[in-house]
Structures are given as C-alpha cells and as structure tokens.
Amino acid sequence: MSANIIQSYAALEAGAELVPYQFDAGDLAPHQVEVKVEYCGLCHSDVSVINNEWGNAVFPVVGGHEIIGTITQLGSEAKGLKVGQRVGIGWTAESCQHCDPCVSGQQVLCTGEKKATIVGHAGGFADKVRAGWQWIIPLPENLDPESAGPLLCGGITVFDPILKHQIQAVHHVGVIGIGGLGHMAIKLLKAWGCEITAFTSNLDKSDELRAMGADHIVNSRDANDLKAQRGKFDLLLCTVNVSLDWKAYLNTLAPNGTIHMLGMVLEPMPIPAGTLISGAKSVTGSPTGSPFALRQLLQFAARKNIAPQIEVYPMSKINDALERLHSGKARYRIVLKADF
C-alpha cells in the first residue's frame, strides 16, 4: 500500500452513517506536516458538518478536528517541529500567512486561502492527517494526550474570549450552557481566579458544576432567577446554539459588560439598542483562536492541570459515539482512540 493512502471513516452524504473510507492524499506539500492520529475529540461541529447544517460541507466528509498524534512526515518548509513529536491539530488546518489578519497574528481570521480541518479537507477520523505547519501545535510533555484533544477546539473557543476581553481574577463571568464547551469554560475560569456563575437548564448537574469550580448556579429556564442576576456580569460566555431571552441576559450585565457568542445560534438576535447604549454593553463573538493562543492554552492547561471530562470510545465505534453525542448524554466530551 502506498505511504500516501489514508484510512478513515467518512460520511458519503449528508446525515449518513460513517463508513470505512480509503483515499490517496498524494505527496506531502512543502508547507505541510503529516501526523499519525492517536486520539481525536468528537465535537458538535463535526455533526453539523456531517449533516451539512451550515451548507458548506464537501462530501465525502472525514470529520475530526480535535486531534492528538505524533509527527510522521515534515514538508521541506516546516519549521520548529520534528518527526516523532506529539502535537495537536484543531479546527483550522491552513491559512494563507500573507493577508493582514495572518501577518498580525490573527490567522484564525484569515481572509485568504484558509481551510477548516473538516471542510474540503480530511480530518482526524483517520489514521493520518495533514495540516500547515503553523497550525501544528506542540503538546506540553505533562499534558495527558488522551484528554487534551478537546482543548484544541472547545477549549480554545472559550479561552480566546478570556484573552480578548482582558478578563482578570476580579471579574464575574457567567457561562450559559454547561456541555462540552461550558464545562471547559468553568475549569479555565476557575484556574484564572474569576467568580463564576453557571447557567444551566439541568440542575441535576449542580454538584458536578460546583466540583468543577462554579461559585453559583442559575436555572436558565427560571425568569425570576434570571431577574435576580441583574447587573452582575462583566462577561457572559454563551455556548448554546438555541435562541434565548437575550434582553433578559443583557440585563444581567454590569456596565461595560459583554455577551460573547460561541454557540452557532441560527436565528437573528433581537438586541435593543437602548440597553446597549445606556450601559455601554456589547454583544460580540469569535471563532476558535490563533496558533499562538492555542499554544498559550495548552501551556496554561498543563501548568494548572486542567483537563476536559471525557468518555473514550475506540474509533471503530465512531457511530455509537456520534449517537451518544447526539443523545445529549455525553459527560462532557467524547474522545475517539485510533484503532486502525
């Protein structure tokens, strides 16, 4: 078998079960690195692309963008990496490196030839994966490779706004939706030193959330509970993908507070201008993060011993794992272990 043949699991059409799929990746490009997959986190974004919910999927889809593995090949232009090194790959596989966002260190906002790891590109539901060398993120030696994968998408998604909004230990941050992203947000904010309020529709999670670091827990379905939070939060991280009572949540913000959108809510958000103006409040959003932010996150997680709470499935049971994710029963992130 050619060294360029990749074994994978792919969805051949929208919504289909994943099936074994083999393809020839061709010669490694000079700027690329090839990684042998050890573990790959399973993310709701994988499901969205497999089901073509965003209308941008390119079939067959080989999902998987929370990848941990070891380098097997280096292109001639790759720098600062070595064969055998353990690394990670997240949502982005390529960026142009010459547009204004790229040269300013915001490669995640690349306006040139950017490629998502699982859109028109083969991801980590495979024995090997390739990406541009700048997006190959070295894994600190004391970070557990089994649980590190979800940090590369879900983790960076909630970590990047902490950096962007210059959050400090004196700030009070709320997390809306405590699933795969939300539970990592609580752990990171706890290590950051913040006061944390978890907004959840499932109060059965309360003990778990306190153990993760939540100081307060609010029933997100209780209007009176929401009213009691008026004027408290410097930042709200919204990880859900459903519409909420946005006016009520805006009222929970302190002056200069921000709701930061991380979940892909597909319906337009009715935002009263008067509420924004009177409290100098804002609504923002962001994708994942730059290679530098990813390196910062992994180093911080290693130093503070932060790890997502995971369930592990062999990659050969990928459809069972997808069903577990779809059912909403995962606590809190699923990781696939390569067993090709």
Automatic annotation (TrEMBL):
Enoyl reductase (ER) domain span: 15-336
Cofactor(s) the protein requires to work: Zn(2+)
EC number(s) stated in the UniProt entry for this protein: 1.1.1.2
Protein name: alcohol dehydrogenase (NADP(+))
Family membership: Belongs to the zinc-containing alcohol dehydrogenase family.
PROSITE patterns: ADH_ZINC, D_2_HYDROXYACID_DH_1
Oxidoreductase is among the record's keywords: yes
SMART domains per UniProt: PKS_ER
